[in-house]
Every structure is written in structure tokens, then in C-alpha cells.
Design a protein that fits this description.
Helix 2 (54-80) packs antiparallel against helix 5, helix 3 runs antiparallel to helix 6 and helix 5 runs antiparallel to helix 6 (202-230). The protein has eight helices and five strands; from the N terminus they run H-H-H-H-E-E-H-H-H-E-E-H-E. The protein has a three-stranded mixed sheet with strand order 3-4-5, covered by helices on one side. It has two domains: 17-230, Alpha-lytic protease prodomain-like (Up-down Bundle), CATH 1.20.1510.10; 240-314, Cation efflux protein, cytoplasmic domain (Alpha-Beta Plaits, 2-Layer Sandwich). It is mainly alpha-helical.
């Protein structure tokens, strides 16, 4: 005998959408970040050429790639909201991962470009116009800081195990872009001041390499985490062994097997398992099922599927 439980709200079906305003707010924040990055990358490029700053020119290309990546993220975010179909039975939530993957690759490509630009600045040193560089850094801090805080504050919240517009891998990648830009401009601001008072123009190339290494390191981490989700690794916020231990504590359960936990998009977790029950305990299968579902929810599994069995040896999936 098998009882299966499926969470209704995988795609928001049968759910009161009182959080629609949060979604629209986040979309407008993403659009704002896109236009700010696109416009400011042009300003950076012109300013970098006028100030002879390799760091600013490199960051102009970086911001331009940011804008393209955020535009892609907006497109895929809209696609991911589509409901389940006969072809995509879980819906389109995993399309978030494509955007996160693209954003991480863009970051890595940008960091490599910046290293090459810095190397060239050492080979062909130029006098840096530190005052113009300093004002561009102040403007960069203001623009990117505003965009970062806007997206961060519109990230939604977590409610009863559900992610309502929260920060998934996609929005985390975008926030990583903008936060790194804020830190980068803070460093450029300090570097511009050092160049202005000391005349050490080589600081510009050094800053470029430092920023590139920092961005590359964090982008690599985000890329690895995204690939883990795509490969259906057990989510980091789920302790699988502890889950199985807690499940065995439920009265009436004699065996738990074929346990699988993975994430759709890095925030919405899916889990399935087989539970062998002993009817002699007096507990009904429905009572045991309800306890299993409740326990899985405590372990941050929002979409549980449970198969109840009465004979362990009859299951062909016990060693899967």
C-alpha cells in the first residue's frame, strides 16, 4: 500500500497571492539595477579614458557585463514564474539556475579581463588623473550602493517554509555583483587618494588585480554552489542523516529508505522517501504520514513526497 503526499504550492497553485506586490517591487529593482549599470558603464568608460585609469576602464567593461547579465536574469525570472506543464512537471523554477550560472560566468570573464588590463598598465604606465578618478569613485559608490540596497530590501521574506520573493541563487548572484562593485569603488576611492598625494600611478594596476582576484574568488564559489543545485546535491541547509534519525523516532515506523532531497532553485527544497510502517502499533498510516510531513517541513523541505509501505522486502527501490 502506498500513500503519496504532494505539496500544492510548488508553483504557487491554490495559493492566495498576497505577496504579488513584493514580486513587482523586486522586478522594478532589477530593472533599475539594469539601467543604472548600463548607463554608468558608459560614464565609466568615458571617465576611465579621460583619467587614464585602467581600473576604471576595466570596471566599465565589468559593469557592462553586469547589465547584460542582469537583463538576462530579468528575462529568466519571468520565465520561471510560469506554472507547471505536461513537459515541465515541476514548472520553470530551475530556469533561475541558468541566470545564476550566466552571472557567475560573466563575473569570471570580467575578472580575467581586468587582470589582462592591469598587466598592460604595468607594461605601458601612464599618468593617472587622480582627482577625476576620485570623483568617479564617489559616483560609483553612490550608484552601485543605491542599486544594491534597493534589491536587498526588496528581497521578500521567508514564511512557513515558503520562499516569497526571497533571495534565491539568481538574486544572490545579482547582489554579489553590486556588492562587489560597492567594495571595488571604495577601494578605488582610497587608491585615488593615495595616487593624488604620492604620485604612485602603479597603484591603479595593483587595485585592478586586487579587485579582479576578489571577484573571481566569489564568482567561483557561486558557480560551484549553482552547479551543486543543478546536479541535485543535498541542500546545505538540510542534514540528511539527522532527518533519517528523527524519522526513525516516529512511533510505528520500522524502516526509512530511498531518501532523496534536492533543491529546485536553491531555496525551494524537494524531498521524497519510503517509510515502512508496523500496523500493530495501533497508529494509522495517515497519522504516521502526517508526522512525517510535519517533520520534513521542520527540516526545510517544502515539497515532500512520501510512500507508505508495509513490507520492506517488497520495495524494489530500497537500495537506490
Amino acid at each position: 500500500m502506498a500513500n503519496n503526499y504532494e505539496h500544492k504550492n510548488c508553483n504557487g497553485d491554490n495559493h492566495n497571492h498576497k505577496f504579488t506586490g513584493i514580486k513587482h517591487s523586486k522586478e522594478s529593482s532589477l530593472a533599475l539595477a539594469f539601467w543604472l549599470n548600463l548607463f554608468f558603464s558608459i560614464v565609466e568608460l568615458i571617465g576611465g579614458i579621460l583619467t587614464n585609469s585602467t581600473a576604471i576602464i576595466a570596471d566599465a567593461f565589468h559593469d557592462f557585463m553586469d547589465a547584460g547579465a542582469i537583463g538576462l536574469a530579468i528575462l529568466l525570472e519571468n520565465v520561471s514564474d510560469k506554472k507547471r506543464t505536461a513537459k515541465f512537471s515541476y514548472g520553470y523554477k530551475r530556469f533561475f539556475l541558468l541566470a545564476a550560472l550566466g552571472l557567475s560566468i560573466f563575473l569570471l570573464a570580467g575578472s580575467v579581463t581586468m587582470v589582462f588590463a592591469a598587466y598592460n598598465s604595468f607594461l605601458n604606465p601612464k599618468e593617472i588623473h587622480s582627482v577625476g578618478m576620485l570623483w568617479l569613485a564617489v559616483l560609483g559608490l553612490a550608484v552601485n550602493g543605491f542599486a544594491f540596497l534597493r534589491i536587498k530590501n526588496d528581497g521578500g521574506h521567508y514564511h512557513q517554509g515558503h520562499s516569497h520573493g526571497g533571495h534565491n541563487h539568481n538574486s544572490q548572484s545579482i547582489m554579489l555583483h553590486l556588492f562587489e562593485d560597492v567594495l571595488g569603488w571604495a577601494v578605488v576611492l582610497i587608491g585615488a587618494a593615495i595616487i593624488h598625494f604620492t604620485g604612485w600611478n602603479w597603484i591603479d594596476g595593483f587595485l585592478t588585480i586586487a579587485i579582479a582576484l576578489y571577484i573571481g574568488f566569489n564568482a567561483s564559489k557561486n558557480l560551484i554552489n549553482t552547479l551543486k543545485v543543478m546536479l541535485q546535491s543535498v541542500p546545505e541547509n538540510v542534514n540528511l542523516s539527522q532527518l533519517e534519525t528523527d524519522l526513525h523516532q516516529i512511533e510505528g515506523i520500522t524502516n526509512i529508505h530511498d531518501v532523496h532531497v534536492w533543491s529546485l532553485d536553491g531555496s525551494y527544497n524537494v524531498g521524497s522517501l519510503h517509510a515502512v510502517v508496523n500496523n500493530a502499533t495501533g497508529k494509522t498510516e495517515q497519522d504516521i504520514l502526517n508526522k512525517i510531513i510535519k517533520l520534513m517541513g521542520k527540516h526545510r523541505i517544502q515539497h515532500p513526497t512520501v510512500q507508505i509501505e508495509t513490507n520492506f522486502n517488497s520495495c524494489q527501490l530500497k537500495h537506490c
